[in-house]
Structures are given as C-alpha cells and as structure tokens.
Structure prediction request, 224 residues.
Amino acid sequence: GQSLEQPSEVTAVEGAIVQINCTYQTSGFYGLSWYQQHDGGAPTFLSYNALDGLEETGRFSSFLSRSDSYGYLLLQELQMKDSASYFCAGGGSSASKIIFGSGTRLSIRP
Amino acid sequence: DVKVTQSSRYLVKRTGEKVFLECVQDMDHENMFWYRQDPGLGLRLIYFSYDVKMKEKGDIPEGYSVSREKKERFSLILESASTNQTSMYLCASSPWASGRDEQYFGPGTRLTVT
Prediction:
C-alpha cells in the first residue's frame, strides 16, 4: 500500500536546528510536499520537491532523495512560533492520489 | 491571497441527522478536496473534485457524499451522521496543474456527533 512515515514527535531547543524525516512507499511518486499546522489552525504549504536535492526557503529547507524514498524538512534558527505539527505529503500522479503522513509534532524549549 | 472558507468552525449534530458542510474558494481553482483529520492519522481524503459536477472517491468515502454545482463551492454531506464521524473536517483547493502540489486549506469544521 501507499504510506508516508514520519516521527510522531520531535523536541528541540530555541535557536537550534531540527530535521524532520519522511520516508515513503507510494506508486507513481511525483514529489514531496511539506505543510505546517499550528494547533487549531489550517495546514499551510511550506515547500515542494519535485527533483532530488535541497530546496531552501528562508529558515526552512526541504530535501528529497528518490533513490532512497526519503525526504526531510530542515528548520534552522528555531523560534517558539515554529512549534506546530508538520506533515509530509506525496504521491500525486493526480491530485487525488496525494496522501499525507500522520504528522510530526515539533515542540520547542526555550 | 487565496481564501478558502468553511461554513462553520464548530458543529454539534445528533446521530442520524443529515449534515451539510460547505466550502468556498475565491481563486478559481479547479481542484477541491474534503479531508478528515483525526489524531495520529493525519489527513485522509474523503472526496476530490476536479471540475463542476465531477468527483472522485478518496480513501474513506463511506458515509459521505459531495456536491459541486459551482466551481467555487464544494459541499460535503453526511447522509446520516454517526458518532464515528466526529472529527475535524478540512476543505482544500488547488489549481489544476500548479506543478507544486500546493493545496490551500480552509480553517476546518470540528464536527461532534452525539
């Protein structure tokens, strides 16, 4: 079956760097997306990797390796406001084939 | 900015009631989605629509139906609500071929069925 696996919880310190991993088993894989969701809020799009390698957007970067069926989201210079859940999403031979991981809850300590 | 709105933030219904959840997007997107979100399960796709009157079943369509009579509006219908449909329901939209798989989500409707 199709699935994306990510850790359920990660804890990090303010100002540090944290990496959230996502491994996948999907057919017709087209790319990997990342979303952020604060408690009580809607998921918001962070990044998308269609090709292998690193995509950087400010403090956030995302990486994809198709040969390893693996990607990660890297958050640098962590701020308290980065405390949220992060979802990877992939698949996507059509929009209806995109599936989401179960989410990683990131807690940041001062 | 893309805006996706949902008719209610919180809803309480009784078992057996027919429930309508409405979603409206203002960016002329072709694709619209209904998900439910439960703790530890992530987002699961209920139904997807790629055009007016067009729909595809997602992973968990049982007990739900949808309607898309206008491009901007996508409705989720619970024909006879049951307690196991208590959940957070999220609507999303995306352009037909953005090349980025970017979906825009509404604020969600927390539905409680008693």
